[in-house]
Write a structure and sequence with these properties.
Length: 329
């Protein structure tokens, strides 16, 4: 018993020490990193930073944005946030300097948006949270302090200068923050990835179950109006989640006049012919002043993820909603 108590106490001490170290690391990153970033910023040629037209990959959760991200950074010479950048999210330009000119091989593997390896492309939420709130998901320009937006602009441009190439970001929340992004980068380019609705909904529900152990607890991006769907059947929730996100992106695209800066693509088409997608993306980006050339050969095709571990009644409900054959009053 005495030995068990000693082992338990030792385990608790290790957990406390680990938690304290992680907390100190995050605090250093969040507060000291930006100070170092400002120092870098005062010593760069700002006019030379190729950050006038950053590219943002957006869409609903599980729509295929991660695969699109991986394909673009493997097919073009683009700068992007890696898992290494996320380790120093307070001053990501430092990672860019360390990784500069390194061969960043992409293996096209991911686990619910997370990749592995030092060069794996990352959404890097902690970098975004330096400037944007964790909640709410939808943010307008008027909701953002000018200082936070200028810090966002400065950090992105510092990364671009270190990378010395155009930048591409994948962040699902960015699709609900078009107004403040465009306020800082009026010529920003957006790749809007969409997926067949039921297939997308099934994948979100599987993500819910993997993350929460059930299908009913909300998971991932909560768009404006999602509160009205809490408590509704799981199938209804995720279909509404997709529709609300897509509607908000379309509405903001119209209101901001971003039609010429937005390229829509379907996950089905990307998987069927990756080379055709890259060719189309190259033409679109070149037309917006981002001159890119292909590097290497993309895979011939990708197998679409069609796993379905859902109860039959949920799948039936999804298809009824898709076909408009529900018996709801």
């Amino acid at each position: 018993m005495l030995q068990l108590a000693e082992n338990t106490n030792e385990s608790l001490v290790k957990k406390v020490i680990k938690k304290a170290l992680v907390s100190a690391y995050m605090t250093t990153n969040r507060y000291l990193g930006p100070l170092f970033e400002r120092l870098i910023w005062t010593n760069v040629d700002r006019a030379a930073a190729p950050a006038n037209t950053p590219i943002f990959i957006i869409g609903a959760p599980r729509a295929g944005t991660t695969l699109t991200f991986q394909l673009m950074v493997s097919g073009f010479r683009l700068g992007y946030l890696t898992n290494t950048h996320c380790m120093v999210f307070g001053v990501p330009a430092l990672a860019s300097h360390l990784l500069k000119n390194k061969d960043r091989n992409i293996d096209f593997k991911s686990n619910y948006g997370r990749t592995s390896g030092r060069y794996g492309p990352s959404e890097c939420g902690e970098w975004w949270y330096r400037f944007f709130p964790r909640d709410p998901a939808y943010v307008r320009r008027e909701d953002m302090p000018t200082g936070a937006l200028k810090a966002f602009q400065r950090s992105l441009q510092t990364i671009a200068n270190a990378e010395d190439r155009p930048l591409v970001f994948k962040n699902l929340y960015a699709g609900l923050r078009l107004e403040p992004i465009v306020a800082m980068f009026p010529d920003a380019i957006f790749i809007h990835v969409q997926r067949d609705r039921v297939e997308n909904a099934i994948s979100i529900l599987e993500g819910r179950n993997a993350a929460n152990g059930n299908f009913n607890t909300w998971w991932s991006v909560p768009p404006p109006g999602y509160e009205a769907w809490i408590g509704q059947p799981a199938a209804d929730q995720v279909m509404a989640q997709i529709d609300l996100i897509e509607a908000q992106i379309d509405r903001d695209t119209r209101n901001l006049g971003l039609g010429d800066q937005m390229m829509k693509v379907n996950y089905r088409d990307i998987c069927a012919d990756p080379a055709a997608f890259l060719s189309r993306a190259q033409t679109f980006l070149n037309s917006r002043g981002v001159e890119l050339s292909l590097v290497g050969d993309p895979p011939m095709r990708f197998e679409r993820r069609r796993s379905n571990q859902l109860p039959k009644e949920i799948v039936d409900r999804l298809w009824a909603l898709e076909q408009g054959t529900t018996n709801d009053v």
